[in-house]
Design brief:
The structure is a single chain. The protein is of the alpha+beta class. Helices cover 45% and strands 17% of the residues.
Length: 536
């Protein structure tokens, strides 16, 4: 680098290692970025739909993950290219906001960039392409608002919700038992939902599981499951009925000074007095809990053998080392107040549960504590069973997507039909609108319509059909019958009315896919110069 000085003697740099910079600019950099995004989209395309293929992800530690969930695949991939990272973040945004449609949004973004590359080769400026894509996205979103249906549901009538969740779970590993899984997801969300405010707090739904058993053993517990815990003393009863629960965040031990100190014991009598005084602390603690009417203690901290023995002697079952999050969920479910000091223990602060029991699994000595029949069902647990840990995690991911679908429908009960039907209808609407555009953006609008076709083509190809032929038949049928519900039937003969086979998606999810994909593509097309420092 070269350094010079101004009139006051301060140095400044006028040239900084230009010979060590790597520079890409113009259409060269745009095409490089498009190529990176197309690679990611190509990986995801074969995972789209109920017939999509799974991906095996192997970490550097040898941990194996098998999934077809778009957000999970992309989060496990080690991506170095910056534009590919944008596509990964796009999928994560869809997952955070909606919880479903993470594969479709990546496929759509890749198709938009692929068609943009063809337009750039024809000499159209990237900004004109971006403007055309934005116009087309607005047309598609407005068109979706004209072809939606609404689903009616209540706590007693949930069939429409179950059918919508079954569409989401149809492409997951749980598809062989998707009705039961959909019913579990619907029941769990309705248990914690506030239907008047149309609000759902998914944090109140705990998802837990144990290796062993089968998928069919998965069940919803109207209460809390505390994993890897048991009653603190082996001779304590393994089941407590009509439990009155004292939830403590203070340890069963004598108080300790917060400053450095030491105790000098000179005689055996003094030592015995000290031991008696310590035992008196334990006795007073247990007495305060017993006097409140509690017959079960759940403690965030541990306690030593002496405290454990005294609890057993006083017929007071206890569970120790319960995590903070689980303590809060137990308090919500049972109606208990979390007690930070023994002086605050009282009957009003106790929680209630019909049954608290310790359950063991197989020969592994794994145990859980199950708290059931709680008066407040605003905290529930989905207890998942599977043959191995990898399967267990995939079932949890699938159920999480199902929970998100139910939440979205509760917030906005408008739906569109899946199987690529809504994309085909939007493609036709955007193509018709392109006829009325007299500027060069018409080419970009047409390209957007062609990109929308990539979703039904991928669905058809992944199901073993001829992609273009199936798409052409569906388009022709939609135009002839004026029926925007006709799409790709992945389990049938290639085309069907999605309303008849109950394949639905949230309107908000579909609009969000188009909006987010378009925004990211516009961002990528606006980059025309890349400078990398330190490269020769």
């Amino acid at each position: 680098m070269s350094v010079t000085f101004d009139e006051t003697g301060r140095p400044f740099i006028i040239l900084k290692e230009q010979d060590q910079q790597e520079r890409l600019h113009g259409t060269e950099v745009i095409k490089k970025h498009i190529a990176a995004a197309k690679v990611v989209a190509g990986i995801m395309k074969t995972s789209l739909g109920p017939r999509g293929m799974d991906k095996m992800m192997v970490s550097q530690d040898g941990d194996v993950t098998i999934t077809n969930d778009g957000a999970t695949i992309l989060s496990k991939m080690e991506v170095d290219d910056q534009i590919a990272k944008l596509i990964v973040q796009l999928s994560r945004s869809q997952d955070d906001e909606i919880g479903d449609g993470t594969t479709g949004i990546v496929v759509l973004a890749g198709a938009l960039l692929e068609h943009a590359e063809d337009l750039i080769d024809k000499g159209i400026h990237p900004l004109r392409i971006s403007r055309g894509y934005e116009q087309a996205a607005n047309i598609a979103i407005e068109h979706l608002s004209t072809i939606y249906d609404t689903i009616e549901f209540s706590e007693d009538n949930t069939e429409s919700l179950v059918e919508t969740v079954m569409t989401c779970l149809g492409s997951k590993i749980v598809n062989r038992n998707k009705r039961k899984m959909a019913e579990i997801a619907v029941d769990a969300v309705l248990a914690v939902a506030d239907l008047e405010r149309k609000d759902v707090n998914l944090d109140l739904i705990k998802m837990d599981g144990k290796v062993g058993g089968t998928l069919e053993d998965t069940k919803l517990i109207k209460g809390i499951v505390v994993s890897n815990k048991n009653f603190s003393h082996p001779q304590m009863p393994k089941e407590v009925k009509d439990a009155k629960i004292c939830v403590l965040t203070c340890p069963f031990e004598p108080p300790k000074l917060k400053t450095k100190h030491k105790v000098l014991v000179k005689t055996s009598e003094e030592y015995m007095k000290l031991a008696e005084r310590e035992q008196q602390f334990f006795t007073d603690m247990i007495a305060s809990v017993k006097d409140s009417g509690a017959n079960l203690v759940i403690c965030q901290w541990g306690f030593d053998d002496e405290a454990n023995h005294l609890l057993y002697s006083n017929d007071l079952p206890a569970v120790r080392w319960v995590g903070g999050v689980e303590i809060e969920l137990i308090a919500i479910a049972t109606g208990a107040r979390i007690i930070p000091r023994f002086d605050d223990v009282s009957a009003e602060k106790l929680g209630n549960a019909g049954t608290v029991k310790e359950v063991s699994f197989g020969t592994t000595k794994d145990t859980v504590v199950v708290i059931e029949d709680c008066p407040n069902t605003k905290a529930v647990t989905i207890f998942v069973r599977g043959g191995n840990h990898m399967l267990l995690e995939e079932i949890k991911r699938s159920l999480h997507d199902g929970l998100c679908v139910v939440r979205n429908i509760i917030r906005d009960n408008r739906i569109v039909y899946g199987g690529g039907a809504s994309e085909i209808s939007c493609s036709l609407a955007v193509s018709n609108a392109a006829e009325e555009i007299s500027t060069i953006e018409q080419y970009a609008v047409r390209a957007f319509a062609d990109a929308l076709d990539s979703i039904p083509i991928a669905l058809a190809e992944n199901s073993g059909f001829a992609g273009l032929q199936t798409l052409s038949a569906a388009k022709a049928a939609q135009l002839e019958q004026n029926n925007p519900r006709l799409g790709i039937d992945c389990f049938g003969n290639g085309m069907n009315d999605m309303k008849e086979i109950n394949v639905t998606e949230s309107l908000h999810s579909k609009q969000q896919q188009i909006l987010l994909a378009t925004q990211v593509v516009k961002m990528i097309l606006k980059i025309d110069d890349v400078l990398k420092q330190g490269s020769v």
